[in-house]
Amino acid sequence: MSDTMAYQQKLAEKLTILNERGNGVLIRVNYIKKICSDPKLRPSLLTDKIMDPAVKYINKKFPNVDFRGNNVSIQHLTSIQRQKAEVMSAASSYYDSFLDVMEFRVNILSLALSINLHIEWHFPSINFDLTKIYLDLIVTYTSVIIMLSRLDDKKALVGMYNCAYEMTNGTCDSSYPRLSQMLIEYEQPWKKLHEDFGPHTRLVTSAVLSLQMVYPRRNLPADQWRRAQLLSLLSAPANMLDPARCDTVSGACAPLIVCVLPVWPAAVSFLLCPSSVNSHPPSLELWKAALRSGLYLTLTRDEALNIHKVSEEVFDSHKGYGKRIADIKECREHAIQNNGALHRERRGFLRGALKELFNVLEDEPGLLGPKALYVFMALAFTRDEVLWLVRHSENIPKTKTPEDYVDNKMAELLFYMVKLKALVVKHSYVIQRYHVQYLAQFDALVLNDTIQNMYVCPEEESILTSSFVSTLSALSIKQVQNKEKFDFRALRLDWLRLQAYCSVNKAPLPLKEYPDLAKVMNTIQFHTRLVDNMEDLLLETSELSVLCFYPRVFEKMFQQSSEEPSVKRYIMAFPYICSDFICCAHPLCPEESKSMRLCVSSMQQIAKLTANVVLDICAEQCNLNDQLLPKNSAKTISTARNKKLKKPVPKKGEVEMEKPGAESVRKDRAVVTNMDKMHLTLTELCSSYDLCSDFIVSDHIINPAEFLLSHLETRLSEIIVKMANNSPPSQEITRPSDLLAAVRSYSASLHTISGYINLDVSRLVKSILLQQTQPLDSQGSKTITSLYTNWYLESLLRHASGSLIAHSPTMQCFINQPSDSDLSFRADEFSDISELQSLAQLIGPYGLKYLSENLMWHITSQVSLSPFLTLCSLSLSLPLVGGENVLKRMTIIGVILSFKAMAQDCLNDVLHKHCPYLMGPIGSLRDFVSPETDTKVTLNVFELASAAGFSCDIDPALVSAIANKTSVDEEYKLTCLLLVYIAVSLPSLALDPNSLYNKANGHNNNIHCLAVAVNQLAASMFTIQGKDIEQQLEEFLLLASSTLLQLGQTVERVESKNRDSVYLLLHMIVEQSPFLSQDTLEGCFPYVLLRNAYRSVYKSCIVTLG
Fold first, then answer.
1. Which portions of the sequence form the region Disordered (predicted)?
2. For residue 63, which phi and psi values (nearest 5 degrees)?
3. What does the alpha-carbon distance between residue 774 and residue 789 come to, in Å, rounded to a whole number?
4. What residues does 813 pair with on adjacent strands?
């Protein structure tokens, strides 16, 4: 063929374009197959019951579907006639996709014919790119046809579109006859493919046979790899700086052959051109080697081809191939028996080889320049092994050693793949700088010398080769330093063109006679890709996007790796490789979505594993810390005291209690405790987080640390609530001090994680504790604020309202009263200063505000003024009705307000320790305002001060709780009547035997809390009504004094036996009121009576010492 004809054919351009187009068509056909086979995604045309008759009729009559014929056809196709526009719109994309397949087939067969007529031979060390791209195209075409044959609904989709089209336009689509004929012809794809490629047997066979020297080396067992020290930089230290080369083919070929070689012989030559197996012994040997290398080949995505089954069917359909069927069965048995172990050993070798390679290059990144080929070969070998296992894990054959198809250390292999890729990207400047100099100062000179030594060089070829030399010679190190962008795509395309020009029959410049030129140019091509196309080279040799189509295999491998203790540090590689999933997207199939489910699920599993270990360590540390609490020191003190007093030693049956810290004493360091195992596991898991701080998957930034923080936050919130140990039926709950100690222990243990992983533990703890100050956390679950609020209201204060628990003003806590019904808890253990301070630290100001709001709700339920409306109609001269009920309600209100005041004081103490600089200004602001100023401003300031724990003259929470929309005058009358009713009812308290005052515990029936109730309730009510609080309280004091003085006039001792204890109420009201003074009291109640009352009460108290 003449030179001009070779140029006009443009074989290189056509091969390149058709390869890219073929990949898109293949992906599109696969996508259509997936959605048609998925009930959830299946097109509505095929799922609509109205269309069922039409679909069945079209499948039966295809391709001759005549809707103008008899009544039967019209009846079946009525549904399409009614919805022809909708059918055309819905089926058009599928119809166009099948047209793309038809056009692709036409172009392929045309190009194959041209290549068969013009190209003479193939040999990878000479025209590697041409050979690879040609065989890739044949494999892609074969895969498209096989996938088309697997699509069951193709006739229905094409037939429905054509019927709708013909009904609309009056004639069928112009492409329909050829398309329908193609669909029928390829119902038996292998038979038709054999007819298509039968004329090209010589060329296809020669292309595949050119790999017969490479393929055996590619399939060497791990032992031979190990003896040859494959991928080792340390095997020859003296040659460490020498550029890496490949003995068999040029540097550019090595990684690429690894990626595609397993598909070539079986899928291209011996299935499409079976005659070469019988007629050519080298073909037979290569065919057997290919059949022994595996059981399944990948067509696309997760679609695999059972190579032995298909080969047996193909050879069985041809006469004279009986021996070949026996060979197929023998190869299949060989593959089943040996392949699993072979690939398992390879993966074991590659784990060590990649680790060594990464460690050396990480320590000396300058070696990436001369040894870049080693990295890409390592990545390609590893990727090939991973994909082999993925294909076969989905279809494990019946074998005696199924464990060969299970790899619980796959994470380590993926981890070092990721690390090597990251290392190349990080030091890409080193690789680029090295190879720019290599191209300009070595490759250009060698190429120039090679061209000068050529005895024949036509004009067109001379122009191309001269442009190669001039392009490379113009390179300089300054271009790298100036960060200029390199683009050698034109040079590589020209080299592909030159291969095509020089491989035709009777070429003026036969490339086979100049192998040195081919080797130099192949090397140059690889070096140029390292300069301007490194990302694509990494993708070509290491991307694992096919894993997104094997979710079961992915999850199975991840689960196996996560259960292996020695591999936990590598499991982050599984979610990280999900960043490769975007690489499998293609413009011809944008609908194919890449879900993040695998990435998110694996990240959540890793975070869950890490969180479980962290919280187990925290729980163990909490148990150890609990042993050091004061409440557990009694046994130790008792034991020490018994030893000091020389009491008898315990009997042999009694187990001696171990002291705290005994778990750290070891006689042998080889003894491994459970804590050691947990810390080791934590170290392994946290090491996996060092792989990367974040990565991108489908345009989403994945931050592994945030997943861990999220799991820790959720789990720790659950644990804190669980440690509260709340049981409403038994009225049990953990003491706030014990829970605070446990929370502090957990917090201290969590901070140790920062030694393993860069984690903001402080933010985590603050977020969790802040959520616990609200009634519900971010998950909508109850918090300790809700639990403690309910417990104090329903258990402690409810019993206090029934006089089973008394408020002790001296001890500033609640104490149990002796009674027949024993309580399940001691009130002082939950209400003393230390416990309430612990509660304030746990639930904070927000939690205490929520507690206060609930307390106010209970107070408003007690302040029901409706009974007093009835009393207003009664004459005050009549005997009092319901006085005990009023005083009982006021006592309950006083108990609630006393508890609130105690909690507020403890909050104030806690805040003074945490933020004294803030508490000072708030206290000064509270002291600055007074009720005489603007009421709204005063209440706002008091609300701020109350939230900080300061006591205020007027309780803003109580004001807000009891405020209502009734008329002010009516409220004022009822409030005054309430105070009058309380004042005139006070003498009745002397009749209650529980009204006796105790200097330690106050009144047994908690009537000393009336002082708080009267002062706070009156101040709040009169503030709402805008009245003078001091004046109203003075009037109340005068009335109360006059009624109590009448107690002294009673003759019967029985009625006045607790008179002195009741007298003290007046002093308490004045003492606790910011609006009354002692002078006011002395003006209406003789001080001598108070003095005598205190003396009488204290004289009756029993004093115990020691």
1. 642-662
2. -95, 0
3. 11
4. 808
Give the per-residue pLDDT at 178.
93
CA distance 702 to 704: 6
Task: Report the distance separating Cα 83 and Cα 80, nearest Å.
Answer: 5
Residues 6+ apart with CB under 8 A from 52: none
Q: Which two tokens stand for residue 883?
A: 């006085």
Report d(CA 592, CA 41) in Å as an integer: 12
Buried (b) or exposed (e) across 166-176, using 16+ Cβ within 10 A?
bbeeeeeeebb
> Which amino acid is residue 18, in one-letter code?
L
Picking from 433, 519, 530, the residue whose alpha carbon sits closest to that of residue 475 is 433
Which DSSP string corresponds to 737-759? HHHHHHHHHHHHHHHGGGGTS--
CB 277 within 8 A of CB 284: yes
Length of the chain as a residue count: 1106
How many Cα atoms sit within 13 Å of 770 on the Cβ side? 7
Phi first, then psi: give them for residue 884, nearest 5 degrees.
Answer: -60, -35
Which one, of 158, 58, 187, lies nearest residue 100 by Cα? Answer: 158
Which residues are CB-neighbours of 728 under 8 A, at least 6 positions away? 790, 794
544-573 confidence digits (pLDDT tens): 999 999 999 999 999 999 999 999 999 999
Instruction: Show the tokens assigned to 922.
Output: 């708030």
End-to-end CA distance of the chain: 123
- Residue at 520: amino acid letter: V
Say if pTM beats, i.e. exceeds, 0.90.
Answer: no
Determine contact, residues 522/249, Cβ cutoff 8 Å.
Answer: yes
Cβ proximity of 1082 and 1070 under 8 Å: no
Best CA proximity match to 755, nearest among 627, 617, 660: 617
Three-state SS letters, 1019-1041: HHHHHHHCCCHHHHHHHHHHHHH
Mark residue 992 as left, alpha or beta (left: phi above 0; alpha: psi -120 to 50; beta: remaining).
Answer: beta
CA distance 801 to 816: 12
Q: Are 831 and 1021 in contact (CB under 8 A)?
A: no
Q: 926 near 950, Cβ under 8 Å? A: yes
pLDDT of residue 762 exceeding 60, the answer is: yes
Q: What crossing angle do the helices spanning 281-292 and 201-209 adopt, rounded to 10°?
A: 60
d(CA 1079, CA 681): 74
φ, ψ dihedrals at 782, nearest 5°: -70, 150
Both tokens of 86, joined, read: 């909708």
Of the listed ranges 93-97, 643-647, 782-786, the one predicted with least confidence: 643-647
Cα 163 to chain centroid, rounded: 49
Q: Give the burial class of 128: count Cβ atoms within 10 A of its Cβ; 0-12 exposed, 13-18 middle, 19 or more buried.
A: buried
Distance CA 980, CA 965 (A): 23
Give whole-number Cα distances, 745 to 623, 720, 737, 741, 785, in Å: 9, 12, 12, 6, 20
- 1104: its two tokens: 């115990």
Question: Tens of pLDDT along 507-521?
Answer: 788 888 888 888 899
Give the long-range contacts of residues 825-831, CB within 8 A, separation 24 or more.
825/731, 825/732, 825/795, 827/796, 827/799, 827/800, 829/735, 830/733, 830/735, 830/736, 830/792, 830/796, 831/796, 831/899, 831/902
